């Protein structure tokens, strides 16, 4: 139960500071406000603060200390949110992993992170953790201590620095082992506040999140909801068929999406006969939304804003299209975050003028310091500005700025290639494919030494029809040599098209 005698004062880092200071400021401001809703019900901000202290107490009892890594592989529920804030209070570095991560990658993460302890509910986690000589705890043994300690008065705060590392966020691997982005408190809280300044989460908002907290898109929803004094709904385990009903029951007003989820919501909404959930804003990341998905969302949710964003875990967010400009510059991914800068550089590192395509480079307080134990990769990706010494993130993505400073994404380095003497990108080919009526989503694979340009399309149309329609939209050199149609494109753990699976599929046909 909640402790009515516990009081919380805003921290000295109210304008930035530490991850847990965000919760403490929200608790001081609205202690009885609704913080979170999961399958077990609602949690107020006061109760979440108490649970975070209870978890910090559990960590202390296990000898966890500042700088130790805590590897957690759990579903996205209140317990994991309390761990986000509780670990922060002690300066313990949280390493959140997707419960669906398989043994191959999990083993490499444990070896790389060298955690002091592990919390996980799966047998694989326990076997691998114990094989590495690490203490492994399941949630059923951890949580009673947390609940009991949560009723005690909060202890004096520790002097956790904003420069301390809050998280190691492992980016999903394909064939290579996952790598971790080092995320200090200062960069995390700056990015969160800058995103909130643009998106404007409100105390009456209900943020409906179906993404795992192990992915930074889900993790930052915890922090953004806190900054907005909003309620976060964690809804990752329910069937897709009841998605609209859950959104309606919880009163969802803000829904983070990726293209696959947007398409699903649009499809379900067309079949739905009830009033739509009260969604006022969809925020997209991961890949560009196809035009038909945007149209379906706007038709199903009158007055809704569909916000385009572009970013990487290495700086969290690069740009956001301001919500009140969602209908302007439809090909743009928006303006740089407040307090940050975007540069477009050529191969020699020189700034390019507006309209010219080059590498997208982010500069600002949101740029993370590097990758965990990957000095060579860090040196290539995170570089100092030769003039100012500021850290710059070389994203490996290509794009351009217009004369008003709006960013246009044109593809990753690996997505750009020459074919028949013409430079092109898989991004433009996929966009043209998804402009074809009946194509729900598409993935283009660049040519290799052993095969030509290939398109995978999720559609009921025959392959020759897709290629014919593409020929009406693209220059001849940009029309793929081969099209494969599938009922459903495979997805990654984060809901993105699984390019590596498709590559293995098409390359396997040639063996």
Describe this structure as you would to a colleague.
There is one protein chain. By secondary structure, the chain is α/β, with parallel strands linked by helices. Among the domains are: 121 residues, Rossmann fold; 104 residues, Rossmann fold; 88 residues, GMP Synthetase, Chain A, domain 3, CATH 3.30.300.30. It contains 15 helices and 26 strands. The chain has a five-stranded mixed beta sheet with strand order 11-12-13-14-15. The longest helix is centred in the first third of the chain and has 17 residues. The protein is globular and about 70 Å long. The N terminus is likely disordered.
List strands and helices in order, with pairings:
Blueprint lengths: L18 H11 L4 E5 L2 E4 H17 L7 E5 L4 H13 L2 E4 L6 H11 L3 E4 L2 H9 L4 E2 L1 H11 L15 E7 L7 E6 H15 L6 E4 L6 H12 L3 E4 L8 H8 L3 E4 L1 H13 L9 E4 L6 H10 L4 E6 L8 E2 L14 E2 L4 E5 L12 E6 L6 E2 L3 H7 E3 L6 E11 L5 E6 L3 E4 L2 E4 H9 L4 E7 L8 E6 L3 H9 L10 E5 L12 H11 L2
Parallel strand pairs: 1-10, 3-4, 3-5, 5-6, 9-10, 11-12, 12-13, 25-26
Antiparallel strand pairs: 1-2, 7-8, 8-18, 13-14, 14-15, 16-17, 17-20, 19-20, 20-21, 22-23, 24-25
InterPro entries: AMP-bd_C_sf, AMP-dep_synth/lig_dom, ANL_N_sf
Pfam family, one: AMP-binding
Protein name: AMP-binding protein
Biggest sheet: strands, sense, closure?
A: 5 strands, mixed
Radius of gyration: 23 Å
Percent strand equals 15-25%
Quaternary structure type = single chain
Mean pLDDT: 90
* Main structural class: alpha/beta
Number of H- or I-type helical stretches: 15
Distance between the termini: 62 Å
Q: Can you tell me the overall shape?
A: globular
User: What is CATH's topology name of the domain at 40-160?
Assistant: Rossmann fold
Q: What is the level-2 CATH architecture name of the domain at 40-160?
A: 3-Layer(aba) Sandwich
CATH class label of the domain at 40-160? Alpha Beta
Strand order of the largest sheet: 11-12-13-14-15
Query: What is the strand tally?
Result: 26
Low-pLDDT windows of residues: 1-15
Q: Considering DSSP H and I runs of 4 or more, what fraction of the residues is helical?
A: 25-40%
Protein name: AMP-binding protein
Domain AMP-dependent synthetase/ligase: 25-372
Region (Disordered): 1-26
InterPro entries: AMP-bd_C_sf, AMP-dep_synth/lig_dom, ANL_N_sf
